[in-house]
Amino acid sequence: QVQLVESGGGLVQAGGSLRLSCGLSGRTFSNYAMGWFRQAPGKEREFVAAISRNGGTTYYVDSVKGRFTISRDNAKNTMYLQMNSLKPEDTAVYYCAADTSTRQLSSTANYWGQGTQVTVSS
After folding, report:
1. Rounded to whole angstroms, how far apart are CA atoms 60 and 50?
2. Long-range Cβ contacts of 84-88 (<8 Å, 24+ apart)
3. Is residue 66 a contact partner of residue 86, using CB atoms and an 8 Å limit?
4. Tens-place pLDDT, residues 55-106
């Protein structure tokens, strides 16, 4: 039973920073590629970032490159998303995701967290 729990969401002003965390339990953390998706009201869920199980490879959607950094700490069973220079268009519910395939995480995932709200004001 893979369980994912996100934390760190909140309300920030444009240009601010926020760090999201996601903990995995129930299985060996290092066996899973990890990633983040987001969904704004009335819009389709979109891929944000992913990291391979050993941390050697990362992927980002073009709109967040240079602003967001995905990382993981296998000793803590935790993945992070550092978000800098936030923009109003980043406002969404952010979902933690896990899969055995890093490539699949660019489009979907086998396991999902419940989501954490990120709101960026103008």
Report:
1. 7
2. 84/17, 85/15, 85/17, 86/12, 86/14, 86/15, 86/16, 86/17, 86/18, 86/118, 86/120, 87/14, 87/120, 88/14, 88/120, 88/121, 88/122
3. no
4. 999 999 999 999 999 999 999 999 999 999 999 999 999 999 999 998 898 8
- pLDDT value at residue 97: 97
CA separation for the pair 78, 71 (Å, rounded) = 9
Return d(Cα 99, Cα 112) in angstroms, integer: 9
Query: How far is residue 42 CA from its own chain's centroid?
Result: 20
- Say how far apart CA 31 and CA 42 lie, in whole Å: 34
Cα separation, 87 vs 28, whole angstroms: 35
Cα distances from 1 to residues 20, 25, 29, 79, 94, in angstroms, run 22, 8, 12, 18, 21
Tell me the backbone φ, ψ of residue 31, rounded to 5 degrees. Answer: -80, -5
